[in-house]
Please model this.
Amino acid sequence: MSEDRQGKDLILAVNSGSSSLKISLYRIAPAFSPTPSSPSSSISSLAPGQEPVELLLVSTISNLSAPPASFSWKPSPTSSTINFGDKIKDSKIQKITSHTNAFTYFLEHLKNASGLEKGAIGKVCHRVVHGGDYVEPEIIDDQTYERIQRLSDLAPLHNGAALTLIKATLQHLPSATSIAYFDTIFHRTIPPHIYSYAIDPVVARERGLRKYGFHGLSYAYILRTLSTHFTVPVPTTRGLNLIIMHLGSGASMVCIKDGKSFDTTMGLTPVSGLPGATRCGNVDPSLVFHWYGSVQAAAEEKEKEAEAQKEEEKEKEKDGDRKETQGKEADGDPDGDTDDDGDGKDDMDGPHGVSRLSHRHTAGVDVRVTIAEEILNRRSGWKAMTGTTNFGEIVAKVKASSSSSTTSPDEQGEQVDADVYTLAFNLFLDRLLTYIGSYYLKLGGEIDALVFAGGIGEKSPELREAIGKRVQCLGFSIDLDRNANVGNAQAGEGEDQKVVDISENWEGKNGRKVFVVWTDEQLEMARQCSLDPRFSQ
Ligand SMILES: Nc1ncnc2c1ncn2[C@@H]1O[C@H](COP(=O)(O)OP(=O)(O)O)[C@@H](O)[C@H]1O
Ligand SMILES: CC(=O)OP(=O)(O)O
Ligand SMILES: [Mg+2]
Model:
């Protein structure tokens, strides 16, 4: 197959999370490849069970926020045409210290292991967490790039990293078309009384201050995948009603009503709602004004931060990280603001509603807010409470501290929040229950399933069990054996088992379903890409 021909068929899907980089390579299924006579295909040409893309390879680089990073490489057992070399599991790689060098490491490994030429990749789908008012995926040109950049303040752990990957793609894969897939699009169905904040509506509109919601690609994948997993069909008069928990380094929940996002826990930015690895989740907004005792203390901290940033930028320049790519510079302003019209003020709104709020280092009035963003996003959550970003480690410590007792970790913890780990575990449980209760009411008790996903949701039977006990009063019941064996079920027959039903079959009762779903944001992007006629050329 010529490189040109391959180039039309290979899709690289890049999912930049706050602590990880997940990359999958797909080929458009042969029956689905565009041909000169039929440049695009549609969902209606798919046979039942047929996927429009075929997985060739998945690579995960995790622990980016708690080095050393861990590199995994998993060629698909069914990919016969290209040899991608041996499987690698959790290899610690010291030199991977950022999303950008994780990506270049991946590209080098891809070339060395498979000999695949860069030109063979025709499309690169990038997960971009904050898409502001975007309502559909977009090919990344100068304008799209700039708009994503303008939204970076509203997803401080994400959009910046995604932009560095977009730049790296333009540099290393210049013949590929880069397409942005936004997490926010899925939540465009949330009604105004839920997405609005109780603030001045004029300011809210002008500055795009509203709930956006994130993890949308994950929720889209889960919703679509789950719709084929109901043995008892849901009432035909409505779509699925679900409560889905995507619990990873960033954790959120969504209330799916009639097959659409009705409410979600994250808001204007991914810091609100549930706590995460380094994020605080919901706090009283006034907390930020009480963190420091005085403006002076805040200004000193700000000074230190600016110095550290300068040092970091010098280092980056040395590494050549800030090379110009296709005529694009990350941000012309040395102070990182968005003074595009050069009037000396940040430009507050643009065609996509929101822009930067507070990153002018020179503006004294902003000092506390910018530091607050840093504190709430990077210096809070599990890391601040316990010293680790890994929830698995927190669970292990809770278990160890309760091992002499016959009670389970969460029961032990409830007696006294004896240590920081137990406090963190119980705090998370409490916040999760808060939203489950709220969403249960919003769905009028009519729920088809409760769903766990994301790194913690997929890998922590302890957290699922603790929640399972509390939600029995709502008619959910978890089978403890199935819950404990979720990992085995996934790795067992058919490595592609993406959904495990952990609900208990209540005799004579119509028990509600509880599922664990291995979410796959990369597949969601690649699938949407292959089905979108705008990207078929
Ligand atoms: N065995 C485990 N038990 C509980 N949590 C785990 C376990 N292994 C990993 N995790 C959690 O999963 C998180 C990563 O989730 P993931 O969804 O993959 O990341 P991201 O949010 O970067 O996309 C880690 O930060 C860690 O807290
Ligand atoms: C939105 C978000 O927090 O994403 P992630 O969990 O991938 O960091
Ligand atoms: Mg993620």
About this structure: The pocket of magnesium ion (ligand 3) is lined by residues 17, 248 (CB under 6 Å). The longest strand covers residues 53-62. Residues 295-322+331-379 form one domain. Residues 295-319 form the longest helix (25 residues).
